[in-house]
C-alpha cells in the first residue's frame, strides 16, 4: 500500500468507467495504475480515449485479461463495472488477491450473492463499497440537517421518488441492461437501486417491514434467456406509519426527483441522482399555508431554497471524486468499514423483495 495514494485498477471498460476514470483522476489521494479488458486491444483503446480527455501524468498500463491485472503488485484497489450477472466471481477473486473492491450496482443478482461477496471481503480484510455516488455528496449532509431540525419537515410520513430515462429502440435491441443473463434486474437494478438507497438513507437505514410492487412492463430481447423489468413501481411500508413509493423506468423520459413529506412541510430534490450541471446542488423546503377569507381560498407557497457549493461533476469536490477519495481514506486507514457492505446488502434485500412481489402479482412481501 502506497502511504500517499490509493493505487487503482479498473476491471472492465463499460461506459460508466469513463466517468469514474475522471473520478479517480480528480481525487487527490488516488492514482490509476491499470485497466483490464477481455482483450489488450479493448483496454488500449479505452485508455487512449480517456487519456486524451482526462490525462494522468503516468499513462495507466493496459491488460488483456482481468487475471493479469489482479496479479499486479502495484494495485491496491479495483473498480469493477462488469455486468451484474458475471460480477460475483471477479469480486471474490479480487478480494482473494488482496484488492479492495468498489463495484457498480446492483451488487449482485440477489442477496445471497451479496452475502458471499461480503464474506469474501471480510475474510481477506479488504474494503467493500458499491458505486452510489450521491452518498458522497455534501448535499446529503445539508439535507440531513434540514430533516433533523424538526421544523422544516417535522415527523417524516412519506418518501416518494422517480428515476427514469426514455430509451430508444437501439437500447432495447442491444444494451446489456435488457438481457437477463447479464442484468437480470433490468430497470429495478439499474435505476431502482438509487430510489431504494435514498429511501433507506432518509429512514436512517431502518428497513421496511413489508413491500409490494408491480411489473408495469418487461422486455425480452432476442437472445435473452428471460425478460427483465423495464417499467416498475413499488410501495414500502415502515413501522411508525411511514410509507414510501418509487417508480423506475426505461420507458418514461428523464426524471430523477425525490420528495420527503412530513407533519410540518416537505423537501424536494429535482436531481437526487445526477445533479443538474453547474456549481451548486440544491433542495427546496416547502411549507404552504392555506388561508380562507370569506370567498377567497388562498393557497400560499412558502418555499425556501437551500444549496451547497459543489460541482455537479468533473471536479475535485464532485460526488464521483469524493466517492473515490472516501474509499481511498478507508483503504489507507487499514481498517475496513463494514457499514458500506451492510447498506449494500440491505438495498439488495429490499430490491429482491420488490421483485418477488412483482412476480407474485403485487402481494405484500415481508422482510
Q: In the CATH classification, which architecture of the largest domain applies?
A: 2-Layer Sandwich
How many structural domains?
A: 2
Q: Please describe the biggest sheet, giving its number of strands, its sense, and whether it closes into a barrel.
A: 9 strands, mixed
Given the C-alpha coordinates, what overall shape results?
A: globular
Q: Strand sequence of the main sheet, in spatial order? A: 16-13-12-11-7-10-9-8-17
CATH T-level fold name of the largest domain:
Dihydrodipicolinate Reductase, domain 2
Please give the CATH class of the largest domain: Alpha Beta
> First CA to last CA: what distance?
40 Å
Tell me the strand percentage band: 25-35%
**DSSP helical segment count:** 10
Q: For the record, what is the CATH homologous superfamily label of the largest domain?
A: Dihydrodipicolinate Reductase, domain 2
Write the layout of secondary structure elements.
Elements: E1 6-11, H1 16-26, E2 30-36, H2 40-53, E3 61-63, H3 66-70, E4 77-80, H4 84-96, E5 100-103, H5 111-123, E6 128-130, H6 138-148, E7 156-164, H7 169-174, H8 186-202, E8 210-219, E9 228-237, E10 243-249, E11 255-262, E12 266-269, E13 280-286, E14 289-293, E15 296-300, E16 303-309, H9 319-333, H10 339-359, E17 365-366
Parallel strand pairs: 1-2, 1-4, 2-3, 4-5, 5-6, 7-10
Antiparallel strand pairs: 7-11, 8-9, 8-17, 9-10, 11-12, 12-13, 13-16, 14-15
Amino acid at each position: 500500500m502506497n502511504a500517499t495514494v490509493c493505487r487503482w485498477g479498473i476491471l472492465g471498460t463499460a461506459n460508466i468507467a469513463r466517468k469514474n476514470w475522471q473520478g479517480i483522476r480528480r481525487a487527490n489521494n488516488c492514482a490509476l495504475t491499470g485497466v483490464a479488458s477481455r482483450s489488450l486491444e479493448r483496454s488500449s483503446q479505452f485508455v487512449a480515449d480517456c487519456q486524451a480527455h482526462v490525462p494522468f501524468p503516468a499513462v495507466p498500463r493496459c491488460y488483456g485479461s482481468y487475471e493479469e491485472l489482479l496479479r499486479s503488485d502495484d494495485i491496491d484497489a479495483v473498480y469493477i463495472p462488469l455486468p451484474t450477472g458475471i460480477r460475483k466471481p471477479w469480486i471474490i477473486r479480487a478480494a482473494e488477491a488482496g484488492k479492495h473492491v468498489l463495484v457498480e450496482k446492483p451488487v449482485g443478482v440477489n442477496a445471497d450473492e451479496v452475502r458471499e461477496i461480503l464474506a469474501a471481503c471480510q475474510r481477506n480484510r479488504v474494503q467493500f463499497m458499491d458505486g452510489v455516488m450521491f452518498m458522497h455528496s455534501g448535499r446529503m449532509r445539508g439535507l440531513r440537517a434540514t430533516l433533523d431540525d424538526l421544523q422544516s419537515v417535522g415527523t417524516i410520513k412519506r418518501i416518494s421518488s422517480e428515476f427514469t430515462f426514455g430509451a430508444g429502440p437501439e437500447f432495447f435491441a442491444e444494451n446489456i441492461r435488457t438481457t437477463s443473463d447479464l442484468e437480470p434486474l433490468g430497470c429495478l437494478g439499474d435505476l431502482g437501486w438509487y430510489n431504494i438507497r435514498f429511501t433507506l438513507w432518509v429512514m436512517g437505514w431502518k428497513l421496511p417491514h413489508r413491500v409490494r410492487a408491480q411489473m408495469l412492463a418487461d422486455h425480452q430481447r432476442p437472445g435473452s434467456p428471460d425478460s427483465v423489468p423495464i417499467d416498475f413501481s413499488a410501495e414500502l411500508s415502515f413501522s411508525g406509519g411511514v410509507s414510501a413509493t418509487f417508480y423506475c423506468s426505461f420507458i418514461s423520459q428523464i426524471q430523477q426527483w425525490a420528495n420527503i413529506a412530513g407533519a410540518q412541510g416537505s423537501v424536494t430534490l429535482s436531481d437526487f441522482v445526477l445533479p443538474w450541471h453547474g456549481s451548486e446542488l440544491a433542495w427546496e423546503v416547502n411549507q404552504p399555508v392555506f388561508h380562507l377569507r370569506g370567498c377567497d381560498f388562498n393557497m400560499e407557497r412558502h418555499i425556501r431554497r437551500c444549496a451547497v457549493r459543489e460541482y455537479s461533476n468533473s471536479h475535485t469536490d464532485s460526488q464521483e471524486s469524493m466517492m473515490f477519495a472516501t474509499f481511498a481514506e478507508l483503504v489507507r486507514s487499514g481498517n475496513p468499514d463494514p457499514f458500506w457492505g451492510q447498506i449494500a446488502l440491505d438495498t439488495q434485500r429490499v430490491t429482491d423483495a420488490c421483485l418477488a412481489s412483482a412476480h407474485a402479482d403485487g402481494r405484500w412481501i415481508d422482510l
